Amino acid sequence: MNYQVNEVYTLKVLGLVLDTRTEQHYLQLQDEDGKTYRVKPFNYYIDWAGSLDTVDCVVGGIDELTHRPWFKLRKLDLLEKLYEVGESYPFVVREKCVDNNGAQYYVIEDNVREISQRYYSRSNHEVGDIFSLTVKDIEENNYKDAYLTFEPENAPAEAPVVKKKDDAEIVEGLAEQREKVGGAEGLCVEWKSSIAFVAGEIEANIDRQLSIILKIIASFQNAKGGNLYIGVNDNGVISGINQDFQYLNTGTDVTEHGMKYSASLDSYQLKIHNAVKARLGAMSNSNIDIKFAKEGDLYYCIVSVQPMRRPVFLDQTVLFQRAGNMCQRLRGEEITNFILDREHQFAQYHSSVQVQPEIKYVEKEQESQPIQEPVIVKTTSSDVKFYMQFYDNGQWSYSKKQSSASDLKIEVPIYKETLKEVLLLCYDNGCVNRIRPYDFLNPKRSNGKRGWKDEDRRYENGFYSAANLLNVYSCVAGDYIAAYSTDKNGDKYAKVHALSAVAEHTSIQLKGNQVVPTDSKEVSYALIKAHQYHFVSALCLKDYQTTTNSGFRRKNIQFRATFDNLDKLAKQ
Q1: What domains does the chain contain, in order, with CATH numbers?
Q2: Is 415 helix (H, G, I), strand (E, B) or coil?
Q3: Integer Cα distance of 213 and 284 in angstroms
Q4: Most C-beta atoms within 10 A of its C-beta, which of 119, 151, 425, 508?
């Protein structure tokens, strides 16, 4: 491939690698010719690597001897994921500088997102000042270096702005019946849904997720301490750790060190303690307390972390400290300053550990009892009771054999497990009709007795004709339906509902329930099985929010990993 300096190219992500000599992470990338390259990632991309299929890179230069390019990640992509035009964000002044033309500027940093850049301002600021700036635009120069531009500080509004209902307000609706666990994420509170699944992944990787858990524990111990809640989703709502137990006997402590675990709370606790002791040290391990609580059938874990006087290093080399609701890695001189200042910091922090909120913990004697793992209903072709066919002209039929009709629109298998459960017809106008297949195929006659309709016979009025039938799902009542849509402004949304949000009807030709606003465009659906709920629980709304909310904006970075999970499940 003929690469050009400062041009942008899309490369495939092969994975994240660690250079053990320098403790530096790199993204392993591949171009169209199959050649591989290593690129230093942004800090955010270290956590996101598992959900990145491709990345845009800029050619920073080309070796004159080998003609091999070297790449840097395109910063524009990162800024567009982290910031939204028109929104305000806090920045801190790190330096006051003068450029080559004699103009004063500030080096400002967003501590939460770990982004820093130049900022020219008419206002006077001092190093350490914290103030909010409103993003005006995200721009890129000829060298493909991206940066934020800001509205003038304290600029008066030109006209009143009508603010549309945003994701935060939707999330508040979720909390009406259940308080967010532990309050809000911040300096002393962190939520994680699992110790087995990395955010944005639907395949278990307990070693990698435990590394993230350990980073959080270390960052708490190097700051004020805090509470880590496992089994709680991005909204602060309990999603449970029940799905984790089947993966406790995976990971390097099992394959390389011969550890064995049972599906119990005791083993769950032991798994975390072993990881902390092995990679953070015995002193760190003695300064955490692990307990469990239960809501309904869902268990969740509370790791209470005490601050440490001595620095806690991950794998004896990497130092993290809590900054806002993120774990910030310290490097070079920052580590030296941290160690020198820690004694003074600890005197302040030791008395400021947050008090654990009132939670009814699982009794100690219950921790060793086996935990019932999620039931997974597996269906095969041998489990098919019937096939239902829907035709272009609105007719329908059912048969024990699959159809080869040229006008067949949709065919769906009706399994033994779903025959008396749910058939879901989904339309492009945002409506979903739920019926019970058994009652429809084997209805009650006038004499009160049931009778099967004729097989291989076409019947009229097979679906709602005023809209386009997109999907038909054969499922059970405990499953979930995901709805994608685009509003009139072009913003893309997604959300998930329990099937209890969709009323059951007796007629197959009704349009059913409106599950997204009527003015939505580009509507599509995906069925989420009950045992997959924990992957997308952060996007699940209450039953009463079916028609009034489009859901969560796809560009909301808070739910990036959950959107990745949803997209992967939708493709299965």
Answers
A1: 8-73 (2.40.50), 84-150 (2.40.50), 169-366 (3.30.950.30), 381-571 (no CATH)
A2: strand
A3: 13
A4: 425
Q: Report whether 216 contacts 228 (CB < 8 A).
A: yes
Directed axis angle between helix 265-279 and helix 206-221, to 10°? Answer: 70
Contact 214, 274 (CB under 8 A): no
Contacts of 44 (CB under 8 A, 6+ apart): 78, 81, 82, 113, 114
First to last CA, the chain: 34
Residue 231, CB-side half-sphere exposure with 13 Å CA sphere: 21
Q: Would you give per-residue pLDDT tens digits along the chain (572 residues)?
A: 889 999 999 999 998 888 777 767 888 999 999 999 999 888 767 666 566 789 999 999 999 888 899 999 999 988 988 888 888 888 888 888 888 888 899 999 886 677 889 999 888 888 878 788 999 999 999 888 999 999 988 644 443 333 444 454 444 444 443 456 766 777 888 999 999 998 888 899 999 999 999 999 999 999 889 999 999 988 888 999 999 999 999 999 998 888 999 989 999 999 999 999 999 999 999 999 999 998 888 999 999 999 998 899 999 989 998 877 778 888 878 888 888 888 776 666 554 455 455 666 776 666 666 665 555 555 555 689 999 999 999 999 999 999 999 999 999 999 999 999 999 999 999 999 999 999 999 998 888 899 999 999 999 999 999 999 999 999 999 999 999 999 988 889 999 999 988 899 989 999 999 998 888 999 999 999 998 999 999 999 877 766 668 899 888 777 888 898 999 999 88
Among 484, 481, 493, which Cα is nearest to 540's? Answer: 481
Question: What are the Cα distances from residue 53, in Å, to 16, 45, 47, 76, 175?
Answer: 12, 12, 14, 17, 34
Residue 102: CB atoms within 10 A of its CB come to 6
DSSP one-letter code for 280: T
Could you give the CA distance from residue 211 to residue 314 in angstroms, rounded to a whole number? Answer: 9
**Residues 137 and 85: beta-carbon distance below 8 Å:** yes
E runs forming strands in 143-296? 146-150, 189-192, 226-230, 288-295
Alpha-carbon dihedral 68, 70, 76, 81, rounded to 10 degrees: 100
* Residue partners of 185: CB distance under 8 A and separation at least 6: 191, 236, 325
Helix (H/G/I), strand (E/B), else coil: 277: helix
Helices and strands in the chain: count of H runs, count of E runs: 11, 28
Alpha-carbon distance 30 to 32, whole Å? 7
Distance between CA atoms of residues 383 and 386, nearest Å? 9
Cβ-count burial 224-241 (b if 16+ within 10 Å, e if not): bbbbbbbbbbbbbbbbbb
